[in-house]
Amino acid sequence: MVLLGGVVFGVLLTIALANPDPGCASSLTTASGTRAKPGPYCSWDLIFEDNFNSLDFDTWEHENTLSGGGNWEFQWYQNNRSNSYCENGIFYIRPTLLADDTGEAFLSSGTLNIHGSEPANQCTSAMNFGCERTGTATNLINPIKSARVRTVNSFSFRYGTMEVRARMPTGDWLWPAVWLLPKRQVYGTWPASGEIDLLESRGNMDYRGSNGVHIGTEQFGSTLHFGPNPSLNGWETT
Ligand SMILES: *[C@@H]1O[C@H](CO)[C@@H](O)[C@H](O)[C@H]1NC(C)=O
């Protein structure tokens, strides 16, 4: 899930609920994680919901990495209330500038080490120099701080219906996204075990493709990624 900024979302997962009712139509849904109700479930019962009256850190694990989630995203995902917080039943993700903390020169000359020493602030992905980077004039340290949260350990499910209410931000450089990724790579590494992109969008108010079509806030994408390896990813067919 790439959440670069300004995303506002409420999640409502409607799937199935542990229900002793013998008359219920049993569901194929299975779920696991610390916030998952024990199955088996009845069809169409609710088994997971978060309306963000508060930010539950046991449900929403914050990533802490510079790795950019496979896309070289130009940001440091971290757990900081300047970048992610709940207010009036809404979860906000808000980007801020690293240079406001470090000064501009740090981006091209400093070293950012985010390994952390406590369980709660350890770096969560070392991929692509995700735990430590040194800036140079041509390779700046990620200039944006933002947040990316996941439920991989608190709730994952197989089969079901999911609803997410989210408002997308406006602003150049913003690329909010809501994704489902496999908890385990049962069929192999990406994209072999799949990826469901509920949405991705751009925050640009005025951004057009070469054919003149608006590809900023006027558009969003919903795609599937699948296939035996990245070069045979079938996402363009979705
Ligand atoms: C959180 O972000 C603020 C604003 O950028 C910064 O001043 C503060 O040091 C950060 N807190 C931590 C624990 O990194």
From TrEMBL:
Example GO molecular function: hydrolase activity, hydrolyzing O-glycosyl compounds
UniProt cross-references to SUPFAM superfamilies, sorted A to Z: Concanavalin A-like lectins/glucanases
Matching InterPro entries: Beta-glucanase-like, ConA-like_dom_sf, Glycosyl_Hydrlase_16
Domain GH16 positions: 14-238
Protein keywords: Signal
UniProt keyword Oxidoreductase, yes or no: no
Cleavable signal peptide: 1-18
Gene3D superfamilies recorded: 2.60.120.200
Database matches in PANTHER family: GLYCOSIDE HYDROLASE FAMILY 16 PROTEIN (PTHR10963:SF55), GLYCOSYL HYDROLASE-RELATED (PTHR10963)
Family: Belongs to the glycosyl hydrolase 16 family.
Name of this protein: GH16 domain-containing protein
